[in-house]
Structures are given as structure tokens and as C-alpha cells.
Amino acid sequence: MNKPVILTGLRANNQLHLGNYLGAIQPMVNLQSTHAGEYQLNMFIPDLHSFTTPIDHKQLYRQVIDSLKIFVAAGLDINNPDTFIYRQSYIPAHSELTWILDCFTYFGEASRMIEFKDKSTKAGSDTVSVGLFNYPVLMAADILLYDAKFVPVGEDQKQHLELVRNLATRFNSKFDKDIFTLPEPWDKQMEFSNRDSGLRIRSLRHPDSKMSKSVEDPAGTIMLNDDPELAAKKVMNAETDSIGSIHLDWEKQPGISNLLQILASLSSRKLTEVAAEWEGKSSYGELKKQVAEQVIHFLQNLQTKLSTINEGEIVKKLESDEVAMTKVANAKLLEAQKAVGLRE
Ligand code: TYM
Question: Does the annotation mark 210 as catalytic?
């Protein structure tokens, strides 16, 4: 198990949406086939991250399994011997390393995390949990326990990834030992995933905000379990602008740019190429129609595959990978425990 590691996690606090698919699932599935045999691939569910904001706890266990089924339906080959799926809470080293890293994270730097600032502003300070504040440190443990070099994530996680690099650098230099492997910097991450820049799919109704599962925005969010026709209606009703001419311009035309981005990502083409095709055209309706058709096609395919997934096989693989990954995580935790003086 000495191959370089590609790792990502998707919370299961709700059903997954198109932003999750394009930001993290699709890149992992693509990397699995383009780099077959060269890398170890860890695709896990950070289930402890699920309730940093309030959720329906009765649904959580089921949603974890449903998310894993989506990965497989999206094309993740779990029979690949270099691929591992697991649940964070089944590997206690994640929580233990988090506490150690917490004590090397500055309050100021954690306070500067934009995701925390955004979510805590929305929730109001009385209901913001310490877990929400602390979640990037848990994410650091998720990554550092496995020496992950590449972490395919959407643009919203860029700052967290930078924090992970800072924490690893600080820890290694304090103890004068390369205990943690630094994940590659953002530009290298983009290059590796064959992207020009980080992906941020916006809400169809509020294109200044990202498409998100924690926002009450059903008309702006395409859920992966949406009825395809309903999803197409959401696209047709997408908020645009009154400029009347199509340009890729996130400042002045975020709604139009978002549609171009969705079209490009779903057809696995470069955004610049798709934008050039539509540049200066006036029919917003035509653009929406094409995006809607792509969305229908994508959801129909995904949902058809989903209905054939064997849940038993996933659970079997999950349980055996959790045993394997516990060993890896414990070995790294022990190195950190030794460094801080908890073990001899
Ligand atoms: P989460 O669960 O919020 O989102 C899962 C993945 O989906 C991406 N994403 C998006 N990408 C593009 N456009 C959007 N609108 C959009 N919304 C979400 C996210 O960037 C992410 O890649 N902290 C992480 C989960 C996590 C993790 C980790 C990720 C925990 N530990 C270790 C990588 C490595 C999160 O909250 O993602």
C-alpha cells in the first residue's frame, strides 16, 4: 500500500446534489480510470462532519449508505484493489488526531475560515456549534492520517486545504520530523484534476451563492435523486439577467455563467470551449433548454444505475476497508502521539 494517495470525503447530512457530483464525485471517478494502478484512492464518508449543522439524525445512518450507493452508480469501481471506502466514525484515529491537531491550530486562523463565517452568520451565534468551528481540523486529520497528496474537492474547500498544509508544516517543523505528508498546493490539485480553476456550481435561484445542501433552496438545487423532469424545470426557471447576450462573466452574469459551467461539466468539456460556442448569442431559452436536456440525460442514467446497485456488496467492502484503513490510520496516529509525548 505504498502508492500515492488520492482522497476525498462527502458529508451525508442530506441527499447529494449536482455541486457535490461535479465538485468531487466525477473527478474521483475520472481519476480512478485515468490513473488506474498508479494511485491509492480513498473515498470516504465523513459522517462525524454531518451534524456540524443541525440535521435529522434518524436519517443519517441511511444517508451514509445511500451516498455510497451514489458513488458506485456514478462509476466508482469498488472492486478495484487500490480503492477504499469507509466511514470516518468507524476509525477512531480521526477523532483522536483531531484533538492533537486542535492544540496546534490557532484560534485566529480557524476563525478566518470563510465557510465557518458564512454558515455561522446564517445560523446566528447562539446556535453555532463548536463542531462547526472545529470541522476543518477534523478534515485535516482525515487527510493527514493517510498521507494524501491529492484531494479533489470543490472550490469551497480551498481554504480548508490550505489550512491542512499549514498545520502539517507547523507540526512537522515543531517536532523536526516529516510526520505528515503535505497535500499538494491548490494549483497542483487543479492541474492533477485537469481543471483551470476550482469548481463552484451556483444555486439556480441565487447565482451569487453556491449550490448547497444546507441552504433552504430547493428550487436552486438539483438533487441527485430529483425527478429528471422536475430538475429540468428548475433549470428552465433559473435566474439569469436582463443583459440579453451570453457571456462567461461571473461578476455580471453569474446565472448564465453557471449554466455554461453545468453544461461544460456534464458534457466533460472545458468551460472556455463551451463558453466560446455560446459567446454573444441572445437566446437564454435555448441555453437553458440544452442544459435541461443534459441534466435529464445525466439524472436518468445515474438513477437507472442506482436502481441496480447491490447494497450488500457495498456494506461488505465498507467493513473490510474499515479494518484495513484502521491499521493505516493507527500507525500514523502513533507517530503523532510519539511526537507530542503521549507514547514512548
Ligand atoms: P461537503 O460534504 O460539503 O461537499 C462534498 C464535496 O462537494 C463539493 N461541493 C461543491 N463543488 C462544486 N460546487 C458546489 N456548489 C459544491 N458544493 C459542494 C465540496 O467542495 C466537496 O468536495 N469538509 C468537506 C468534507 C470533508 C472532506 C474531508 C473533503 C471532510 N473531510 C477530507 C476532502 C477531504 C465538506 O464539507 O464537503
Answer: yes
